[in-house]
Write a structure and sequence with these properties.
Length: 561
């Protein structure tokens, strides 16, 4: 069978062409240029079916990769492929990188394989991407050079006899060559706040298919080819198709049909900034991404590292943002080296797909130790709320040498016979659903409503809640992953509380509807020498600011006992 015959015959034994196979050589160029290091967090812009994101996740190891694309079909395909490959450190989200609110200062590197040429406002888009990069973070992208330097488009134009005529791409304002001019692109990136901008020539061909038939099928899927053919009568269409077949035949090699292309690797860097976040006070230090227990945990410290350490352990689905900046500052003012961190599946720490945690509850306990180890802290004063209080209890039982004191807020031992949650709360929890996790305002409304549901008679400060939840959403590439905590089974300590010998403080709301006050009383009774401080009017929640005058001195005092 001749090549021409194969081009006109139905082929069932040749793999169909896709963008990954077409751009296989460019993919390798981008992979080398990106130089992703172990532990890095990667943003893949215009990820398509997710090949580049999967490769980035594998290179990042304990880091993580997030792929974004505006195509719902592509994101669905990418999720399926990542699931089939059993890659845990990967997320995908349908989003427009020009306007999406990424977690600020989160990613070490942003990459893109021909996914940045179609922004309505390129300067605004790259400025938005820049805010997602940590200070000193880099962007590495591959973009097409000028149209006339790319045989893959010029030769097809010639075959269609469209040289000099407007194409569908132009009419749709989708210009794949919009970032071809290094001078113009440098100006765009500089206006977006980037520095150290460079361009590297890429002279690699594209593969349109294994043979002429596959290549023709691929080309006929191009929207601008379909548009031009639709404007022709049947006879003109046949002549055009004949010219395309001849073109593809002339470019057929043993390993497929290849046409020439030219591209740029564009590199730029977000300038380094000071190490203290503006959002926090003078004792707040830069967030750190630390390897711990096989994952990456984001931590932030306050105060003098030579002072006694206090580790704050959050409740279920709660990032460290729930430990208010001012709360942490006040503890540091009391002579403490304060450490807060995002538990896994929250904030900037490693997250797993929602509904599919590949770990058990014990991992959260080991993570807390991992934070202390990573920071070189031998022992710490533990302050845990709700689930975090349960983690602190287990640590005090299992690792008494690592625990200097214990503060349990809105916590429980889980012992049988304790008072159940209020009937009102049970009814409200049964009526609720989940928000659209990709909608920032919906998530803020969801958690604000939850705060009202769990609060006592102390009025909820809604403005403060919106600030906390908004920041948590901004910092969390996959905020829905926090729901994974509810699938975990915890270790019960109710029969071993008598083994706890460190100074212990029990802070419990008198109006807690989830763990009624009797839970706090039981903890104080079962832990020898524990001090119970009733917090009047507080429900199942972080101590609200009106109670800080009592809470913070009590925590500092128990740590000095």
């Amino acid at each position: 069978m001749t090549t021409h015959d194969r081009a006109t015959a139905a082929s069932t034994d040749v793999a169909p062409t896709d963008f990954d196979s077409e751009l296989r050589r460019h993919n390798e160029v981008l992979r080398r240029a990106s130089a992703i290091e172990f532990g890095e967090h990667v943003l893949d812009i215009g990820c398509g079916a997710g090949l580049t994101t999967r490769e980035a996740a594998n290179a990042a190891g304990m880091g993580r990769a997030l792929g974004v694309d505006i195509s719902a079909a592509s994101i669905s395909e990418a999720l399926a492929a990542a699931g089939a490959a059993h890659i845990a450190n990967i997320d995908f989200q349908r989003a427009d990188a020009q306007t999406h609110r990424f977690a600020p200062d989160h990613f070490d590197v942003a990459i893109s394989r021909f996914g940045t040429m179609f922004f309505d406002d390129p300067a605004a888009a790259f400025a938005n991407i820049g805010t997602a990069l940590r200070p000193g973070g880099r962007i590495v992208m591959i973009v097409w050079q000028a149209r006339e330097r790319n045989e893959w488009i010029v030769a097809i134009d010639r075959a269609l006899e469209t040289i000099g005529r407007p194409s569908a791409a132009a009419s749709d304002r989708l210009d794949p060559f919009s970032l071809a001019d290094p001078v113009a692109v440098s100006g765009i990136l500089e206006r977006a706040g980037f520095a150290d901008i460079s361009f590297t020539d890429v002279d690699e061909p594209v593969c349109y298919g294994e043979d002429v038939g596959a290549a023709l099928d691929w080309i006929l899927g191009f929207s601008y080819v379909q548009d031009m053919l639709s404007r022709m009568d049947a006879e003109a269409q046949e002549r055009a198709l004949g010219r395309i077949r001849e073109l593809l035949t002339d470019h057929t090699h043993d390993d497929g049909v290849w046409l020439g292309s030219r591209a740029w690797i564009v590199r730029a860097r977000r300038p380094a900034e000071s190490g203290v976040r503006e959002a926090t006070g003078s004792q707040a230090h830069e967030e750190q991404l630390l390897p711990a227990n096989g994952v990456t945990l984001c931590t932030q410290t306050f105060g003098d590292s030579a002072a006694p350490a206090t580790l704050l352990i959050s409740g279920a689905e709660s990032s460290m943002d729930w430990w208010d900046d001012e709360f942490c500052e006040l503890l540091a003012d009391g002579g403490r080296y304060v450490v807060r961190y995002d538990t896994r599946d929250t904030g900037r720490s490693t997250t797993f797909p929602p509904g599919r945690p590949s770990y058990e509850g014990g991992a959260l306990i080991d993570d807390a130790l991992g934070v202390l180890d990573a920071l070189g802290i031998d022992s710490a004063h533990l302050v845990g709320i709700s689930m975090g209080g349960g983690i602190a209890q287990v640590l005090a039982v299992r690792h008494p040498d690592r625990v200097a004191s214990l503060t349990l807020i809105a916590s429980s031992s889980g012992a049988p016979g304790l008072p159940p949650m209020s009937s009102e709360l049970a009814a409200q929890m049964g009526d609720g659903g989940e928000p659209d996790w990709s909608d920032r305002d919906a998530v803020i409304a969801y958690y604000t409503a939850g705060e009202h549901m769990l609060a006592g008679s102390i009025a909820v400060d809604e403005e403060r809640m919106r600030r906390i939840v908004g920041r948590a959403w901004d910092r969390s590439p996959s905020i829905a992953s926090g729901q994974n905590h509810w699938q975990l089974s915890g270790e019960s300590t109710d029969t071993r509380l008598g083994e706890i010998a460190v100074p212990t403080l029990v802070l419990h709301g008198t109006e807690d509807p989830l763990f009624p006050f009797g839970h706090g009383e039981a903890l104080a009774r079962d832990i020898a020498g524990a001090r119970l401080v009733p917090l009047a009017g507080m429900g199942h929640q972080m101590p609200p600011p009106p109670l800080w005058g009592a809470v913070i001195p009590a925590i500092v005092e128990i740590g000095s006992a």
